[in-house]
Amino acid sequence: MSQSQNEERKAWFKGMRKLKFGIQSEMRSAFIAKVIKYDKKKHLADIQPLVNFSDGTEQAQLLDVPVAENCYIIDEILERFKPDYQATDTNSKIPAHDHSNFVPHYRKKPFMRAGVPVVAVILDRDNDNWSGGRSVDTFTPETNRLHDINDAVVIGVLGGDAING
C-alpha cells in the first residue's frame, strides 16, 4: 500500500471516529440529577442534571418529570401506617408489651424529596401524549423526537438510608 493510500485510510478512520463521537454525544440514555421540587400527589419532579456541558455550563432544569413508583411507594406505605404504629406505641393490649417502639425508629425524611440525587433515564420516543401514571394505553408520539432529555423519567433515588431517608 502506498504512503498516500495509508494516509487516506487513516484520515477516513479518524473521520469515522469523529462521526461516531458526534452521534453518540447527541444520544442520551441516563443521567444523575438533583431533585429541586417534588409533587408527591402527582408524582412529578423538577430536576437539575448534575453533569455540566463540556464547556462547564450547567444544563437546564427539567420540569414535571414523571417519577417511577419504586421511588416513592415505601414513603407512602410508611405514611399510611404511621397512625397505626403511633396507636400501637401507646395502647398495646399485651401486658408484657405495654408499649412498642415503632415510631422512634421511623425514617426522619421521605426517600423521595427535594435535594436528593436521582437517576433519570431518557425514553426512546416523545412521551408527551402518554397519559402517565399507571396508564398502559398505547399512544402516538406528538413529535419525531428521539432520545431527547425532555422525555426523561426518574427511576431511582441514590444514597440515603432507612433512618435518614
Sheet having the most strands: 5 strands, antiparallel
N-to-C SSE string, H for helix and E for strand: HEEEHEE
**Approximate strand percentage:** 15-25%
CATH architecture term of the domain at 27-72 and 110-157:
Beta Barrel
* Category by helix and strand content: alpha+beta
By DSSP, the count of extended strands is 5
Walk across the major sheet and give the strand order: 3-2-1-4-5
Percent of residues in helices: 25-40%
* Principal-axes shape call: elongated
What is the distance, rounded to the nearest whole angstrom, between the alpha carbons of the first and last residues? Answer: 65 Å
* Subunit organisation of the chains: single chain
The poorly predicted ranges are none
CATH top level of the domain at 27-72 and 110-157?
Mainly Beta
CATH topology of the domain at 27-72 and 110-157: OB fold (Dihydrolipoamide Acetyltransferase, E2P)
The number of helices is 2
Features:
2 helices, five-stranded antiparallel beta sheet, alpha+beta
Task: Describe the SSE topology.
Blueprint: H1 3-26, E1 30-39, E2 44-49, E3 62-66, H2 73-90, E4 117-122, E5 152-157
Antiparallel strand pairs: 1-2, 1-4, 2-3, 4-5
Account of the 3D structure:
It is a single chain. This protein is an alpha+beta fold and 165 residues long. It has a domain at 27-72 and 110-157: OB fold (Dihydrolipoamide Acetyltransferase, E2P) (Beta Barrel). Helices cover 25% and strands 20% of the residues. It has two helices and five strands; from the N terminus they run αβββαββ. The protein has helices at 3-26, 73-90, and strands at residues 30-39, 44-49, 62-66, 117-122, 152-157. It has a five-stranded antiparallel sheet with strand order 3-2-1-4-5, with no helix packed on it. β1 (30-39) and β2 (44-49) form a beta hairpin. The protein is elongated, with a radius of gyration of 24 Å. The mean pLDDT is 87.
